[in-house]
Amino acid sequence: MVRRPVAWVVAVVLFAEALGIAAVNWFLGVVVDRQDMSLAGLDPNVMSVSSKVGGLVFGAYFALCGLVALLVAVRDRAPAGLGRILLISAAVVHALLGALAWGLVGWTAFLFMVVVLGLIVLLLMTYDAQATPAEPADAAPDGGKGADGSPAGGSAAGGSPVTPPPAPTTP
């Protein structure tokens, strides 16, 4: 199947992206610090530190999303709860970054963001297709027939008895 390889690829890409984002922001913080630049009177030290902290936080976010994808790949189970929310938010972030990258950086950065977005969506969708409703616990494995060949469930109509809905009450 395609589920596990996609999960492995998403995990590797998100870990690499986390490292790249953190490194680029750290580099930008160092450049601002060494050039002693100021933007509209802001303190250069504050800009440098905020760039470094922002890069580390954003990198940690992508690393956490990569960890969720890694757990999906190892367990071969759909992400649930917070992990699913993290992967959906990473898909939204990549869609927004792709839209910004088209205008600010160019089509190659846009293409990268769209590919990562597609991989994350593919990861989420392939595991959704696996989650089919389970067979009821009282379903007979032999096609609904009892031991004597009569319909299972004990009802003469051929199915399990149905409880009527409660009678309506009027005030």
From TrEMBL:
Keyword Membrane annotated: yes
Region (Disordered): 134-171
Coiled-coil ranges (or none): none
Record carries keyword Isomerase: no
Residue spans crossing the bilayer: 7-28, 53-73, 85-104, 110-127
Keyword set, alphabetical order: Membrane, Transmembrane, Transmembrane helix
Listed Gly residues bias regions: 143-157
Regions of compositional bias (Pro residues) in chain numbering: 162-171
Domain of life per record: Bacteria
Name of the protein in question: Integral membrane protein
